[in-house]
Amino acid sequence: MSTSAISTWAWSAVLQWARLGIGAAVFLIAARFLGLAEIGAFAVAFAPVRLAQMVHRAGIADATVVAGTDEARRSALFALSVLLGVLLTLGVLALAGWIGGETGRLMRALSPLPLVTGLSAPAEGLLRQALQIRALALRTLVAQGGAALLTLAALGLGWGAMALVLFAVVAAAVTGALSVAMAGWRPQVRPDAVAMRGEAAFVARLSMRELAAGAPAAVMQVAVAAVWGLPVAGAFQIATRMITLVDTLALAPLRYIALPRFSRGLPEARSAAIAETLGQAARLAFWLYPGAALSASEIAVLAVGPAHGGAVAPLFAALCLSGMVAALAMPLNQGLTAAGHAALTLRRTLWALVVSLGLALPLLPVSVLAGTMALALGGAVVLVPYAALAVPRLGLSRASVALAIGPAAIAGGAMAVVLWLAAEQFAGLGPALALGGKLALGSAVFAGGLALTSGLAGRRSLAPLA
To answer: Which stretches of 100-161 are DSSP H helices?
Structure first.
């Protein structure tokens, strides 16, 4: 890997750790100050707002990356982004009025977020298109760091769940303002209705993919609150935030630079880049998520304390499967988008939405754990046929995919078996010491298994050339 590529990856890691990691860390710190019912009320209030923001972050920003230097398209995307922001903000306000109570109050306070995101999403896309990763990372560190300090102060003053609202609003506003200033772009062409409709179709495909991907967790969040009450919904929200933090620490940087990287060069170069990224994602996913699932009790206690850790740990362990599926699907999603096959990614997420909720909602009244496990399983079921359709469209062979994923999968399986068999050896230790021991043992087994299987796979692939 070249020096410039390493620098881009490093700053992308900083960017994602700042954008998602700081937010998740602030939430987990807040969980030590708040009751599960307060966390549940915020989670239900934030669920529709988060879905509304996905329209801009996935649809508008990614469309701007793909649009290149076409000023007419850029201007049309900006006008569409602002219009959607206004409509979504009004929709959130109407929903808050209908819900009422503490959840409605929190939702009203969060309602400006879709408009703020709509004003800044095209600028975000332009900065990503130019691979200004260092500038984006520094911007996000300033915005998220400042919002985090204000939130911690608000928690100390007893603001309760409104402190989490403060973080979301301040971080979005400062990030958006800095993005617009850094991009230095203003609409150059007056967009017309025809141009906006043309862009709307592409934006809809991109955003619907992310909406469908995010909808199972959002719908499940609301359903858990309706069936089991706000305290259980709070535990579910903490588990999902912990998965977000795990994803951020390892996989989000790879995801962030994938689309710009895949959008450049010839199809042959794109196929090679996708295969390389798939291998990287597989190695991280099969090391990270099995280990996290088998260390869920220690991670939960260390993250949110013993008061909430017992309720959170089994849900977090179940959701680790969702994290693994998302990691393995990411290179396929981004590669298909860059190659002009975004419709296939949309179909996959729609099927995952139907299958996941179709399995989870009937089991939710039995127990929240059963519903959560079914939710995660649904995504895994859909991934297999999706990969079979995606591989030939990306110019990959089944052998190259197997070579990218197989060694990591075998090493991850061996690690999981060893950690499961050794569980009693860590039972008498404190959570920090037990987690450290599991991390050391699991990493050693995974590294050894990966070296062995990769070596065997490499010799086998070279055998026909001998």
So the answer is: 101-110, 113-129, 133-156
